[in-house]
Amino acid sequence: MIAFARTDTSLVARWWWTVDRVALLLILLLVLAGIVLTMAASPAVANRIGAPTYHFVIRQALFVIPAVLVMIGLSLLSPDQVKSVGGICFAVFLLLLALVPVVGTEIKGARQWIGAGPIAIQPSEFVRPFFCITTAWALADARVRRNLTGYLVTVAMLVGVVGFIVAQPDFGMTMLVLGTWSVQVFVAGLPWILVALVVGGGLAGLVGGYLMLDHVASRIDRFLDPSSGDNYQIMTSLSAIQNGGLIGRGPGEGLVKAVLPDAHTDFIFAVTAEEFGALACLLMIAAFGGIILRGYMRMMQERDLFVVLAVSGLLGSFGLQAFINMGVAVHLMPTTGMTLPLISYGGSSLVATAAGLGMMLALTRRRYLEGTR
């Protein structure tokens, strides 16, 4: 066990005594659970595509190393350093996001990835946490200076990010970015005239997506009226959850992973329910809730508006993504292609989520023990 004297003034020692160790433990437990569940869900998927049995398991385990290093590294930063890193990284990944329609790789009808040899990244995943930081910075500045410039800057950033994501297209990620931004502007106290414009724009975007994007219309129609189309994935997911019962069929005994193409990503919650049962699902939900509640409890002790807004956005994004993924699995909302953070297979999702949580841990450290900002 790591142990440091309270008189130790080294960077790591100060980090250890000021970081939320309970939240850190819950995050690491979810990462470990992600490897275990990927091992349960992915071999059948790998065999279907002709890959080695543990292809996805090995790749996910390798992604864990940079993810944990990124999270710990970012959690060492001060709020001012988080601002700087967040702004620079937002600009870099926004540029990559803009390049996706030009040089991106198309998978399943969507162009969301940029590949370089064996490595491929999904810029939209990385833009999201750094967008939270940059938006919080602009909103906090607007409140301090009492002008609309900061609000208009955030609206411009939102339009740019959403525009590039819609072009891919990725409607689920678009809704997640809009939801995250809405949390931040609500906390910041957005002027009512801008609230009306934003709500109107969001509704117009939703209607436009339904009218112009066939796959979006199809998903919404099938959600509202299951008889209007193919609902095989959702029905299979619900059947798996029901068959799992309270304690599950047992590790490796599930059937859903053999028939669902996205069992290791979009529907890993169904695999969890079938093989490990409702109790395991409740423990997973409790871990997600614990991270979010711990973060918000520490945030409420903050006086720095930037910290409050940034943590609100980062935790809102994390919690909303988890809710959407699990909600889809139990048919509470249309399918979106959203991964379960820290659990689902995917290097970009894992590392980007770790980056967001690392910045959250940095911003919620008990800085009064350090005596520095």
From TrEMBL:
Top-level enzyme category:
transferase
Please name the GO terms of the biological process aspect recorded for this protein, alphabetically.
cell division; peptidoglycan biosynthetic process; regulation of cell shape
Q: What is the recorded membrane topology of this protein?
A: Multi-pass membrane protein
Name the chain's protein: Probable peptidoglycan glycosyltransferase FtsW
GO cellular component, alphabetical, reads: cell division site; plasma membrane
Q: What is its main location?
A: membrane
What Gene Ontology molecular-function terms does this entry list? lipid-linked peptidoglycan transporter activity; peptidoglycan glycosyltransferase activity
Protein family (similarity comment):
Belongs to the SEDS family. FtsW subfamily.
**Family matches, as PANTHER family:** CELL CYCLE PROTEIN (PTHR30474), PEPTIDOGLYCAN GLYCOSYLTRANSFERASE FTSW-RELATED (PTHR30474:SF2)
Q: What is its EC number?
A: 2.4.99.28
The residue ranges crossing the membrane are 56-77, 84-103, 148-167, 188-213, 276-293, 305-330, 342-363
Keywords, alphabetical: Cell cycle, Cell division, Cell shape, Glycosyltransferase, Membrane, Peptidoglycan synthesis, Plasmid, Transferase, Transmembrane, Transmembrane helix
Reactions accelerated catalytically: [GlcNAc-(1->4)-Mur2Ac(oyl-L-Ala-gamma-D-Glu-L-Lys-D-Ala-D-Ala)](n)-di-trans,octa-cis-undecaprenyl diphosphate + beta-D-GlcNAc-(1->4)-Mur2Ac(oyl-L-Ala-gamma-D-Glu-L-Lys-D-Ala-D-Ala)-di-trans,octa-cis-undecaprenyl diphosphate = [GlcNAc-(1->4)-Mur2Ac(oyl-L-Ala-gamma-D-Glu-L-Lys-D-Ala-D-Ala)](n+1)-di-trans,octa-cis-undecaprenyl diphosphate + di-trans,octa-cis-undecaprenyl diphosphate + H(+)
Concerning InterPro entries, the annotation shows: FtsW/RodA (IPR001182)
Instruction: Give the organism, scientific name.
Output: Tistrella mobilis (strain KA081020-065)
Q: Name the source's superkingdom.
A: Bacteria
- Subcellular location field: Membrane
Coiled-coil region(s): none
